[in-house]
Amino acid sequence: MAALLKALGPDDAIRFLQIYETGSGDWTKERKTLLEDDPDKIIKSIMARRKKVPTP
Predict the structure, then answer these.
(1) Is residue 13 a contact partner of residue 5, using CB atoms and an 8 Å limit?
(2) Do the beta carbons of residue 31 and residue 42 sit within 8 Å?
(3) pTM score > 0.70 for this model?
(4) Are 14 and 6 in contact (CB under 8 A)?
């Protein structure tokens, strides 16, 4: 709490605490089912998304 107050100041520290929510679940286990392990598949997915979005 002291580090939070020092870094943000009292007003922003209170604002942060008001909007902060702790998560639930186990990210270490869940990420294995949600994220792709194969780097080539990750790159292909990124490139496919970039093709869908028009460049400015």
Answers:
(1) yes
(2) no
(3) no
(4) no
CA pair distance 23, 18, nearest whole angstrom: 15
Two tokens at 48? Answer: 């496919």
H-type alpha helices, 1-56: 2-19, 27-34, 39-52
Per-residue pLDDT of the chain (56 residues; tens, 9 = 90+): 999 999 999 999 999 999 998 888 888 888 888 887 888 988 998 899 888 877 66
Between the alpha carbon of residue 51 and those of residues 5, 15, 16, 55, the distances in Å are 44, 39, 37, 9
| d(C-alpha 31, C-alpha 24), whole Å | 13
